[in-house]
């Protein structure tokens, strides 16, 4: 009987297979292995994944959709992947700018966090940042903060994909008073989100200079026991490197390697001060890196040797860092533009990091850095439906000779029109569908006063 019924349906659809939605666009930028850019392209989506990618005429011939999204004057691209941020810090946006990292951390951020950060703060801050990320085309982000289970719930609410790292740090913080407590909490977090379609829980030892050796090792063991990632800040500043060389006789990378901390799934942020032998270690360990040009420029941390790192085949994605003093937004369109230009100006070579590579860092290379490239990072059959459309009907978007140049050097976060994550539309026509922005904006204003008062004392 069931066979008979489906037979009738397929005849009725003239051999066109039923799918949930068809998306069409002037250009489909796939970021697949051939780097295909399909003019008048389309994709078919069913459930959480992409069923087919091709010319609009082929997709329309082969598939029949319940829903259509036609964007004849837009680019359809993989969702952007932010490989390093601290989402809830959006509520500290701009609270202390224009100072060095140690001053900023010790005299502003750590005290401001001690006085303000609790579960509720993290929930509202994460909602705010996730809204900003969704509206600017980010579909996956990597986080390091406190109360990371609250981060996970807020992330799911907005509908983003997250690799979310529970912080482990060597002094009492808002959620846990000791690294031991933090590790126990992280294990609980791993179990709670063991099989979540959107959330990959992670352990996040803050950095080699804020976490004791034994705790760093314990983080690695916990991550490996549950096959989850370890995320960490690494070789961010010259100060971090010099201190490590002085105290340990080794660079931070070599010291972590000697302790076995890099032996497993790792995403390390910054990698500004890496020696050649550090790079060899990271290559051997297949460590994912997050390049954060805004943050490195703003804090004058230095310039990562992105060209060499990528040439070695080390997956280095892009991250915004922030959202407080190291970068005041979570705008990946800006990060791509800065990544390309920063390499050019510091190598005095305009060919150093082309637009296509910068866009790859924000998509497929970022996915590799997270070891999630079998699922996300490109528009390919079978991959998760994490996609964005970017409008081309604005003065700054025409004419268009090269899609990558347009995406990296001309288009803005505000040109992102639609966003789908895991097959669910979360932004349509520049409006967020999953959460009411009103209360989030009101809370941001409320926290502004509260944070200001707490720092005045
Ligand atoms: Zn950071």
Write the layout of secondary structure elements.
Elements: H1 2-12, E1 17-29, E2 37-46, E3 49-55, H2 56-62, E4 63-78, E5 80-85, H3 101-116, H4 119-135, E6 138-145, H5 148-158, E7 161-168, H6 179-192, E8 199-205, H7 213-226, E9 230-234, H8 238-248, H9 252-258, E10 266-270, H10 276-285, E11 288-291, H11 293-298, H12 306-311, E12 316-318, H13 332-347, H14 355-361, H15 364-369, E13 387-391, H16 403-410, E14 416-421, E15 424-428, E16 431-432, H17 437-456
Task: Describe the fold and architecture.
The chain has 457 residues and is α/β, with parallel strands linked by helices. 41% of the residues lie in helices and 24% in strands. It contains 17 helices and 16 strands. The strands form three sheets. Strands 3-2-1-4-13-14-15-16 form an eight-stranded mixed beta sheet, covered by helices on one side. The chain has a four-stranded parallel beta sheet with strand order 5-6-7-8. The protein has a four-stranded parallel beta sheet with strand order 9-10-11-12. A hairpin with a 2-residue loop joins β14 (416-421) and β15. The radius of gyration is 22 Å and the shape is globular. The termini are far apart. Mean pLDDT is 95; it is low at 1-12. Residues 84, 86, 233, 269, 321 line the site of zinc ion (ZN).
